[in-house]
Design brief:
The structure is a single chain. This protein is an alpha+beta fold and about 150 residues long. Helices cover about 25% and strands about 30% of the residues. It has three helices and nine strands, in the order E-E-E-E-E-E-E-E-H-H-E-H. The strands form three sheets. It has a four-stranded antiparallel β-sheet, with no helix packed on it. It is globular and about 50 Å long.
Length: about 150
């Protein structure tokens, strides 16, 4: 895929992928990455390989836009996770940081835990909390994914 990071984007929550590797190549601009407790700044032409289970976050801290080629292997259902998140954001169902409410997060975290996990709190704590929230989320009409967002 190819993704564009707007200037001065916010650092997303640290996360990891339990069964996937990611490879990034900066096509233009620069990308800030937090990994292994260090900050890296990747510039045009730089690449980065992120192994399975490696906690990381990335954003554009520069004044210009950044374009990145991004590969996730194996892809699994990452496309559905991204389409759902972007659909929610485009429909104004996220906060100013692009995050949906906790009930929506609970359903998505349960459905997509094989491709995306927050680094904190520990996964077992997340699982317990999200499972407890699940019936309330369904009761209020939330879904883990929405057909209208999927390509």
């Amino acid at each position: 895929m190819e993704t564009t990071y707007n200037a001065k984007s916010k650092e997303p929550p640290a996360h990891y992928h339990p069964y996937q590797v990611e490879d990034f190549t900066v096509l233009s601009g620069e990308l800030t990455v937090r990994i292994d407790g260090q900050l890296l700044v990747l510039k045009e032409g730089n690449s980065l390989h992120i192994p399975v289970n490696k906690v990381h976050s990335m954003w554009n801290n520069s004044n210009g836009k950044t374009i990145v080629n991004w590969k996730v292997q194996p892809a699994m259902n990452t496309d559905n996770l991204l389409e759902t998140g972007i659909g929610l954001a485009n429909n104004g169902k996220t906060n100013e940081n692009g995050m949906p409410n906790i009930l929506q997060i609970a359903l998505m975290a349960n459905k997509y835990s094989d491709v995306f996990r927050l680094s904190k709190p520990p996964f077992v704590v997340q699982k317990i909390v999200f499972i407890l929230l699940t019936p309330f989320a369904y009761l209020l009409g939330y879904k883990p994914t929405y057909k209208e967002y999927l390509d």
